[in-house]
Amino acid sequence: MSAPMKDPLDLLDLSSQLDEQERDIQHTVRDFLADRARPQIGEWFEDAHFPRELIPELGKMGLLGMHLQGYGCAGVNATSYGLACLELEAVDSGLRSFVSVQGSLSMFSIWRYGSEEQKQEWLPRLAAGEAVGCFGLTEPDVGSDPGRMRTRAVRDGDDWILNGSKMWITNGGLADVATVWAGTEDGIRGFLVPRGTPGFSTSDIKHKMSLRASVTSELSFDDVRLPASARLPEARGLGAPLSCLNEARFGILFGVVGAARDCLQAALSYADSRIQFGKPISAFQLTQKKFADMAVSLSTSMLLALHLGRLKDAGTIRSEQVSVGKLNNVREALGIARECRTILGGNGISLEYAPLRHANNLESVLTYEGTSEIHTLVVGQALTGQAAYR
């Protein structure tokens, strides 16, 4: 009898597709999390606790805004960033969400659309984990159609007066600065709103059944007065926040592969030790069919992620290609998590085992940064040339 595979991605030897630096980054992140996060993640999930003490450590490792150039950022390639997201989400989606929002939404919005003064003020601190950022786009009544946002910014002399609210904002209750998108007489514009600005408040969302090891908040703006220097000067129109979302979606399509891998590893280990009818359940044909189907799905998702990583590194990736990755990989990861739970039987509902925790988290990942329906229509428009959003 041959030894079981420890990593189901070894089925296609996918690590051979990485260069030495990419493998080193992936292994460094995996080892760090094995020591600092994995032993406590079940407890953090149960207690709805985000480990704030890890933020400076993530910054010291260069994981915050790691794919950006300059301003204290690591400047690694997109594939390396994706692999870091994979390892973060293999522990918990909440950890990957923090890093995604910090780097691909908050920091990227400043890096891409901010003034030099804004970049110098915020990016080095955000990269070091000395400050936390969030990204305010979604509203209580506006999700998939952000062009209908109700948050407004009105000129008052040289200042802006901001009113409105944002909902389901990851890192909101932690953030030292919020990138906030608002309608103006000149269209949608972005603003940097520091914590402590009069009229700006946050309220954390409680009683979540998903992403419990993550801070999710509502942002409220009541006659918030902002100087002209708070506006992101290069952000004009809805395309600006949507480009930031594309950055975050890229991290997701890698990250969920990590969650699926972790589920499959847990189920493989359990099935090898669980004895029924005189033999391990891994020896039964129906169980092996489940494993084979999931391993094929996991491997193809990883191949898709790597391909999109190479396209992004080459500067040729298109938004509909990111939608293909997000749509496919989240859907497949959620299916793997649910199937792995069945292999664990009654034990599968315990936080001692990862699959149901991952499945709960992936229910949120399925929805945020574009629902499956929206990404389906993005792909449909690319194929037909017809926009079917309305």
Automatic annotation (TrEMBL):
Domain Acyl-CoA dehydrogenase/oxidase C-terminal: start-end pairs: 236-383
Record has Flavoprotein as a keyword: yes
Domain Acyl-CoA dehydrogenase/oxidase N-terminal per the UniProt entry, residue ranges: 20-130
GO aspect biological process, one term: fatty-acyl-CoA biosynthetic process
Cofactor list: FAD
Domain Acyl-CoA oxidase/dehydrogenase middle, residue spans: 134-224
Keyword field: FAD, Flavoprotein, Oxidoreductase, Transit peptide
Classification via InterPro entries: Acyl-CoA_Oxase/DH_mid-dom, Acyl-CoA_Oxase/DH_mid-dom_sf, AcylCo_DH-like_C, AcylCo_DH/oxidase_C, AcylCoA_DH/ox_N, AcylCoA_DH/ox_N_sf, AcylCoA_DH/oxidase_NM_dom_sf, Glutaryl-CoA_DH_mitochondrial
GO MF assignments: fatty-acyl-CoA binding; flavin adenine dinucleotide binding; glutaryl-CoA dehydrogenase activity
Similarity-based family: Belongs to the acyl-CoA dehydrogenase family.
Name of the molecule in the record: Glutaryl-CoA dehydrogenase
Organism: Pseudonocardia asaccharolytica DSM 44247 = NBRC 16224
